[in-house]
Write a structure and sequence with these properties.
With about 325 residues, the protein is an alpha/beta fold. The chain folds into two domains: about 110 residues, Nucleotidyltransferase, domain 5 (2-Layer Sandwich); about 140 residues, Hexokinase, domain 1 (3-Layer(aba) Sandwich). It is about 40% helix and about 20% strand. Strand 9 and strand 10 form a beta hairpin. The two termini are about 25 Å apart.
Length: about 325
Amino acid sequence: MKKTMTLLGDIGGTNARFAIITPDDSSYSHFKKLRCDDFKTVVEAINYYLKDIGAEDIESIFLAIAAPIYEKKIKIVNNHWVVDKDELYEVFNINSFNIINDFASIAYAIDAIDESSYQNLGSLEQVHTKKLQYNIGIVGPGTGLGGSGLRKLKNRPITYASELGHVGFAPQNELQIELVRILKIKYDRVVNETLVSGPGLMNIFWALHEIKSKYFSKCSSEEIFNQINDNELAKQSTEIFFEMLGQVAGDFALAIGAFDGVLIAGDLVNNHATQIKESRFRFGFENKDNYQDLMKKIPTSLVNVSELGLLGIHQFFNANKAE
């Protein structure tokens, strides 16, 4: 392979997804998903990937990472990797390096998909795809909790990322207040992703056992979902989780003015689409006191697109190539 290739990467708290693209390609190729825990550093993971696909040289790197982008050395929020801009330039002898937040990348991806990729949560349909101007929010629970926005002015998309997961969680009823009180045993600060994420679901499950004084056996988020038909606390945990997701998504819509819609992304929710549709997600979303009438007019949908982050970094690559 010639040195005209660009490495695309989408790095989250658990997995890193890589692909290659050349200037003449309409899409990326050589997609691989690696577990971050299997590698000490991002450099080690990239070297493994390039060797695995037989690529000797790359010209540039475009990364979407789960962290705020504000300095040359960036620690991934929910894993041990550090992305060092100078190190990547030196090790891979590249000409250019571009990095954005992983949920900013997802916002770029949203502009490239149509309404067929949405599953409505509630009775309202997404209509932003038919508008020249709109402002929507994207929320996604996974290893952490991400949030971003996409504002379109005429035909110009503007993406922006947030640290939604690290905003303090606001409990809305007595049970949620009790859950937060219990979780203060483990955490100095209870934030949105303490509850609304894969580990957050595990925290809810643990805290309910503490409240009920029942024996607790640690389970992954997927194991909790798998028990909902024969474990009452597992069922209650997922119900609370989806209602809280609605609350946080509604708060985010108000915070950024995403009155044209809120999209929910990520495998954690998409793998359990039936449950979220039957849950109190919309109740949590709409339950905003004097703003309930406004919230009832904001559509919410699942985004059913695989590898959304990698699609987004590909879109970001194309936008930079066009400039």
